Amino acid sequence: MGPVLQVQEVTRRFGAVTALDEVSLDVGDGELVGLLGPNGAGKTTLLSLVSGLRRPDSGTVRLFGGDPRDAANRLALGITPQETGLPATLTVGEVVDFVAGHYPAPMTRSEVLARFGLEDLARRQTGGLSGGQRRRLAVALALVGRPRLVLLDEPTTGLDVEARHVLWDALREYHADGATVLLTSHYLEEVEALAERVVVIGAGRVLADGTLAAVRDLVSVRRVAFTSGPDAVTRQAVTALPGAHGLHDAQPLDDGSTRWTVLASDADVLVRSLVTHDVAFRDLEVRGASLEEAFLSLTLADTQETAR
Q1: Which end of the chain is more exposed for a tag (fewer CB within 10 A), N or C?
Q2: Can you give the C-alpha Rg of the chain in angstroms?
Q3: How does pLDDT run across 48-57, given as a tens digit for each residue?
Q4: Contact assessment for residue 107 and residue 150, using Cβ atoms and an 8 Å cutoff
Q5: Taking the domain 5-216, which CATH number applies?
Q6: Domain ranges for the chain
Q7: What is the CATH number of domain 222-288?
Q8: What gap in Å lies between CA 276 and CA 262, rounded to an integer?
Q9: Which among 279, 271, 269 is positioned nearest to 237, based on CA atoms?
Q10: Segment 112-127, tens digit of pLDDT
Q11: d(CA 202, CA 37)
């Protein structure tokens, strides 16, 4: 069986703006892929091509082996866009039943409501829902037809922490049943919590594609934290130290000292630099970069390369 989704050298422009620049991406059956990138990186444009809403200027997109603009190839596709319109006068239960009626073997109303913690809202009109409740319902509707592939564009925008975790659990459960999931998110901890594979997009190009660990290792960024006494070192001096990639945080402490957190391209060189530059420090901590730090490093490196 070939990939569920196949994107080959796809370019899409909007006037003078190139939203996607020869992007290639395959997603296999049963994968859960997180798509990361800043605003304007091309994430939503890519999903619009996959769902058949737009066509590429060049390159090919294949959904279940066929053209996504053909409705027959979208029967096993579930979508939650960033903004979803719901009929305000219908209740949550009625909307679930209406959408379920378009599929041959949908989830039952009770199953959908239970998975997404919507039981108490079944009789509520959608026009009276909060933004977070509407978002949960929108994701639930994307899964009601038991699609093989689900596209989720910023699925937890507007949700509080508890509701976000309810949604995470529902997505994990659905994925465990064999579904393929492709999601975009600005919540990097969300991708760390859910995704098995991460694709980083910047300026319309794929910057990295691999496991969470592989993305971190690709940039070899380490997080170095230490505490220095009052006036021991300035912000400018810290960022100028050999081995430093950038300053992540400078937290003043009650005793007048500062807790510095530095992203280091070479942690060993940075620590030696602290010693050779006579910086008095204590409580040294060195660890691997988080996904957020790796992402920032990747996009920064790409911006610098483009500038050259």
Answers
A1: C
A2: 23
A3: 999 999 999 9
A4: no
A5: 3.40.50.300
A6: 5-216, 222-288
A7: 3.30.70.980
A8: 17
A9: 279
A10: 999 998 999 999 999 9
A11: 6
Report whether 218 contacts 187 (CB < 8 A). no
- Token duo for residue 82: 């960033």
Tell me: the pLDDT tens digits for 145-193? Answer: 999 999 999 888 878 888 888 889 999 999 999 999 999 987 778 888 8
**Taken in order 76, 2, 44, 263, is the CA torsion positive or negative?**
positive
Position 63 pLDDT exceeds 60: yes
Per-residue pLDDT for 61 more than 60? yes
Name residue, tokens 């594609």.
209
State the distance between the two ends of the chain, measured CA to CA, in whole angstroms.
42
> Tokens for 308?
């050259």
pLDDT digits (tens, 9 = 90+) for 208-236: 899 888 877 776 788 899 999 888 888 88
CA nearest to 115, candidates 99, 137, 100: 137
The pLDDT of 99-104, averaged and rounded, is 92
Give kind and range of the element (H or E) at residue 132. helix 131-143
The DSSP code sequence of 162-202 is HHHHHHHHHHHHHHHTT-EEEEE-S-HHHHHHH-SEEEEEE
Q: 5-216 with 222-288: one CATH topology?
A: no
pTM over 0.70? The answer is: yes
